[in-house]
Design brief:
The protein is an all-alpha fold. The protein has 13 helices and no strands. InterPro entries: Aromatic_CoA_ox/epox, Ferritin-like, Ferritin-like_SF, PaaA_PaaC, PaaC.
């Protein structure tokens, strides 16, 4: 299947809402999901889980802002950003299942894996802070992810390239929303400046992890399928620099928080907050594993 055909298939009118037991159709139904020649299916599945888990876990954190945002307009904006990421998660988790070659799909990956099987970066799972922390985290996350997805549109896997092309449009809005708020907070009142400054300081120690390549990313990068995240660092620094200058803020200087024995989110090593997040996310599915409604 070509990129154009894959893109058309995944962007047709498709209900992207998703909850356990609702029986929505496979989001890749009708799409040729053949693994590209010379690529290990297990590697492609692992890579899609990395990107899918980033979106799934951060979307869950964003839904915690429902009824907690400062204005109704921001309630809607944050909810829509969370839904965009949930849609990306559905496509990527479904792609992982197809690449793996078994019968596991999005429900299994979201609701029936243990904590150590999730491959998201730790930035996505951090417990909810205040609005300044949200904007700082969304700015960092969306700037990084947009830089990755822009490069993934050239992937040799047409399905992954189509998912990335669709995601670029969404992530551009996510980044712009966060950047506008960062400028408003940074160049606003003394208190708003304090909140965004502290927010940036709290998320910055998790930034280096975003650009540390996993062996799977390197292997697939050489095969023309994935992106080495370190290649996106210069663009990330440039964009963040522009936003922070406009907000009259300094780039945080905070040491990276290391993983355990050099292992972090991509290796299944997470923060304390991840276990609590999964307990909530997976509770209904694990209590009623065969339920549909």
């Amino acid at each position: 299947m070509s990129f154009d055909n894959a893109y058309e298939a995944i962007t047709e009118e498709n209900d992207s809402r998703w909850a356990f037991g609702t029986g929505f159709e496979d989001p890749l139904s009708g799409v040729d999901t053949t693994v590209p020649s010379g690529v290990e299916g297990a590697d492609l599945a692992a890579y899609c889980l990395m990107l899918g888990d980033d979106a799934l876990i951060f979307s869950h954190r964003l839904q915690e802002w429902c009824t907690n945002a400062p204005e109704l307009e921001d309630e809607v904006a944050i909810a829509n950003i969370g839904l965009d990421l949930l849609g990306q998660a559905r496509l990527l988790l479904a792609r992982a299942g197809k690449a793996e070659g078994g019968d596991r799909g999005e429900d299994h990956y979201a609701f029936f894996r243990a904590e150590h099987e999730f491959r998201n970066v730790r930035l996505a799972e951090l417990p909810r802070g205040d609005f300044g922390e949200l904007i700082a985290r969304l700015l960092v996350f969306s700037t990084w992810r947009l830089a990755l997805f822009q490069r993934l549109t050239e992937s040799r896997d047409p399905v992954l390239a189509a998912i990335a092309a669709k995601g670029v449009k969404e992530l551009t809005y996510h980044r712009d929303y966060a950047a506008q708020w960062a400028v408003r907070l940074g160049d606003g009142t003394e208190y708003s400046r304090e909140r965004i400054t502290e927010g940036l300081a709290s998320v910055w120690p998790y930034t280096d992890e975003l650009f540390t390549p996993h062996p799977v990313e390197l292997r697939l990068g050489e095969a023309g399928v994935a992106v080495d995240p370190s290649a996106a660092r210069a663009e990330f620094d440039d964009v963040l620099g522009q936003v922070l200058r406009a907000a009259t803020l300094d780039t945080p200087e905070a040491p990276a928080i290391p993983g355990v024995a050099g292992r972090a989110g991509r290796a299944g090593v997470h923060t304390e907050g991840m276990g609590y997040l999964l307990a909530e996310l997976q509770s209904v599915a694990r209590a009623h594993p065969e339920a549909t409604w």
